[in-house]
Amino acid sequence: MKLKHIFAAALGLLMITACSDDNTIGTLGNIELDKTYVSIPETGGDATVTVKAAGNWAFDKTFQVITKNADGKKDTTYHETPKWLSVSTTSGSAGETKITLHADATNGGRDTQLQITCNGQRQYLQVMQGNEVAQTATCAQVIAGPDGKSFRVKGTVESIANTTYGNWYLNDGTGQVYVYGTLDKNGAEKNFSSLNIEKGDVVTIEGPKTTYGTTVELVNVTVLKIEKAMMKLVDVPTTPVAHDGGDMVVKVAFKGAGVEPVIPADAQSWLGVTKIETIEGVPSKTVKNPADTALITFHCQPSNIVEARSAKVSITSGTTTMNITVKQAGYEIKTSTCAEVIAGKDGDTFTVQGTVESIKNTTYGNWYLTDNTGQIYIYGTLDANGNAKNFSSLGIEEGDVVTVQGPKKTFNGTVELVDVTVIKITKK
What we know:
The protein is built from 3 helices and 29 strands. The chain is mainly beta and about 425 residues long. Strands 2-11-10-4-8 form a 5-stranded mixed β-sheet, with no helix packed on it. A 5-stranded mixed beta barrel has the order 13-14-15-17-16. It has a 5-stranded mixed beta barrel with strand order 25-26-27-29-28. Mean pLDDT is about 85; it is low at about 1-25 and about 65-70. The protein is elongated. The protein starts with 10 loop residues before the first helix and ends with a strand.
């Protein structure tokens, strides 16, 4: 796990943990600060600190902090100067220097720890702005909020990237936030599995915001509440249903009063639910309240369109709703060449693809279709509703590649397809 930002909630804890074994906060031989803690109002403003140094000194942009854990082991973390805080002077020479720290107004509170180095010795400066009480917010408000501020947010676990440190995505419908590190019930890291958080659970968390590159993160969050998902997707086929129709069976585990699939209105003409089979869970010594299983059968009607189609279906059980996508393959067009149409029987229906070469009549839709095997005459083209004398509504132009279907006829030696239906148009 890459460690970046550490936030101290109390000065006393900071003064105990923020220095290494060979340094203490306060007066050092090479560098002194007239104060090691400053506060800036929530409305914005300045704070001043006086540095007394025996030589050249500088604020470190990135520095390490070595802390002792309760078990006596050392833990090294890294910290960066935040973007919300500006420092009038970031370096100086021997003597006394007065520096000014400035922060613009913020809604809530935030804090950071800075480090100053002189001749190998380090001093730490804690800067706090406002009241650092976590603000209840949506994901959208977290994304728009300032770095360094603590937020409390409730959302659904979308996916889990790391099960040791607890890196995962939270979504509440207004946006998505990346959780970078999750503390266990004792406030310890690297114990995410003990929380038993799973995809689909609804959780309430609290932690400070940071932005890493373009990713908005809440770092080392505390979990306040876990609402276990009432349903889990067990098996969702990814292979599309065939164009000539068929079933797709989705398997879900649930703890509630059944499952309810909802098909969007624009897909109800071709997609439906034909059966829901429920299998009750069997309690055991280790699992007192096992999940039940539902097998949901979705049925797709035959497709007569070229393009594949899909529908986003929601499945709800109790307070949990999850989405799946049902896909169906497009209509498989079997085409003939112009040469095969010419050689075929009058009265037979052919589907052929070719280029529009010459349009003779823009009302009825009389034109020539050509491929690399020959040319046939299209005598009459139906519009999208199957009506004649409305060729212009199709927007077909010379050079377009079209797929048409119609019966063959030979008139005075000219091979024709009559009153064709246009299946597909690819603009030139």
